[in-house]
Amino acid sequence: MAIARPIRVLGLLALGLWIFFFYQVFGRTRYPKGPGDTLEHMDRDPNLDPTGEPEGILHRVEEGYAPGPEGTARINATLLSLVRNEEIDGIVQAMQDLERTWNSKFNYPWTFFNDVPFTEEFKRRTQAQTKAECRYELIPKEHWAIPSWIDMELFEESAKILQENDIQYGSMKSYHQMCRWNSGLFYKHPALEHMQYYWRVEPKVHFFCDVDYDVFRYMADHNKTYGFTINLYDAPQSIPQLWPETMKFIAQHSEYLHENNAMNWLTDSDRRPEHNLKANGYSTCHFWSNFEIADMNFWRSQAYEDYFNHLDRAGGFFYERWGDAPVHSIALGLFEDASKIHWFRDIGYQHIPYFNCPNSPKCKGCVTGRFTDGESWLLKEDCRPNWFKFVGMG
Ligand SMILES: Nc1nc2c(ncn2[C@@H]2O[C@H](COP(=O)(O)OP(=O)(O)OP(=O)(O)O)[C@@H](O)[C@H]2O)c(=O)[nH]1
Ligand SMILES: *[C@@H]1O[C@H](CO)[C@@H](O)[C@H](O)[C@H]1NC(C)=O
Ligand SMILES: *[C@@H]1O[C@H](CO)[C@@H](O)[C@H](O)[C@H]1NC(C)=O
Ligand SMILES: [Mg+2]
Questions:
Q1: What is the pLDDT of residue 39?
Q2: Where is the composition biased (Basic and acidic residues) (predicted)?
């Protein structure tokens, strides 16, 4: 049967449109499907490259890391965990991972914090995981309490809005208190007075790779202020006023801006422009603070003290759900030399649902280069490509 020419042309056109349509919908993979796939703006995940120890001087077990006063090679540093008595199983598991991969060699003390006293069972079971000293500290009431200037009716109203926007834990008072304490108070606890560095550990996190050097002395010897493993986008609805408040602060205190700051990383709007828009100018990229190895002198600086007080007065720890992760990250990105921020690429780590899993024979139990074991849409929460681009790695 002969088909009239105009019909053939129309048929071809329709076919072409269908192909175009399917290409638009299925053809462009925006995010990687699994290990090895490419990321937008990141041709290759650096975690797939063979990863060894960082360069430069490293201090090792032979130098004197026995538990107790014999451990003369240790500096003033502690593993640090804010944790609830009910989370005993989770913290024991996290301790086992970190003791196995690192601390059984270096024996840094553990310091546990709680807003209520630790139970005897908590103390017994945690101390049983380590040869190092464990300290159990109560948070002073004035560090944990909701500040007097917070209007509790406004808090309840705001919590409803957070809930409507699906902001996890938005209506849970203690979650807001926890974020505030981690932002601006933990390092003021008297138990940390003589401590300079800390490694923050949460219940249920995993560590996968043997680390055979003193990471605290690495920080000190290489002038590092802050070490991270994972870099994420935040939910913009949890922090709409954080960046505007930060800009107000900067307008009054431009002297605190570091000349080598990470402003371009903080304000990126190329990748996920809608995040930047909803957060009023902040990319929402942050170092995921359930892991941090850091120098408390930065939090104790005048710049950070003034910044935290400004934010605290603005009320966003309660009326919004400002997390300690974006607060820490913005402060570091503005007031610190960006070269003092270190990606601990060699420390295999997981806090559900994200991983840092390097390509190294020292790692066991994670899939090299895997960013998440959750739903594939979580892959777009990865903000490492922005950081790598910013520091010239990608
Ligand atoms: N003592 C005490 N610790 C808390 C409280 N709320 C949170 N924490 C601790 O603070 C840290 C962060 O809390 P999480 O509940 O893990 O918050 P998150 O990591 O954002 O959320 P998850 O995805 O559920 O882990 C953990 O180490 C908790 O044990 C609290 O009210 N009291
Ligand atoms: C650790 O802190 C104590 C008390 O402040 C101080 O005397 C000591 O010199 C410090 N040690 C190191 C290695 O910095
Ligand atoms: C560390 O920083 C100090 C002060 O900024 C500087 O004097 C020193 O040379 C730095 N050391 C290294 C190894 O970068
Ligand atoms: Mg957690």
A1: 43
A2: 38-47
